[in-house]
UniProtKB/TrEMBL annotation:
It comes from Halorarum salinum. The chain crosses the membrane at residues 7-24, 30-47. Residues 61-180 are annotated as: Disordered. PANTHER family: CO-CHAPERONE PROTEIN DJLA (PTHR24074). Residues 129-180 form the J domain. Residues 70-80, 103-113 have a biased composition (Low complexity). It holds the Pfam family DnaJ. This is J domain-containing protein. The lineage of its organism: Archaea, Methanobacteriati, Methanobacteriota, Stenosarchaea group, Halobacteria. Residues 82-94, 143-168 have a biased composition (Basic and acidic residues).
Amino acid sequence: MDRDTLLLGLAAVFAGIAALMGVLAFTDSLFLLLVSLPFGVTAYLMWEHATGRLARRLREREAGRRTTADAEAGPGASRSRLGREARRRAEAGRRARGGRRAGGTANARAGPGDTRGSPAAGTGMPVREAYRELGLSPGASRGDVKRAYRERVKETHPDSGGDEEAFKRVNRAYDALRDD
């Protein structure tokens, strides 16, 4: 039994105790309502931790603190998640357009019809290989890419018996093709 399953079980037990004390508070003594509150809070925090939401919320809060300094740095800088994503993509695009290789070809992401095989920005996987990994022909539509990705994820996800390395390759392939 893994740690998260154990935490979820304990959270259920604490939630049951809190619910029972809450019901008894209305039939017996309102003091039990105060006693049930710590059990309810404990159950909630255990559930948040076991599902990973607590850690994700803490990471988002920390990222928000880090971007506060960026937002104060200049106008147009956003503290929202969408603003951060837009800035990150714009910066990646500027780097990709600005960088030239020795052969004179741009280090930019290849388009859907491009079969040169140059790596997509930030993924390290050539576009041609990404299409092959998802079982698509070059130039497939965005909808086809998304459908193929979802099917391949279902097959390769480690939680459903798939191979972790294959799952990582599928994710890299989708990252390489999703913004084309």
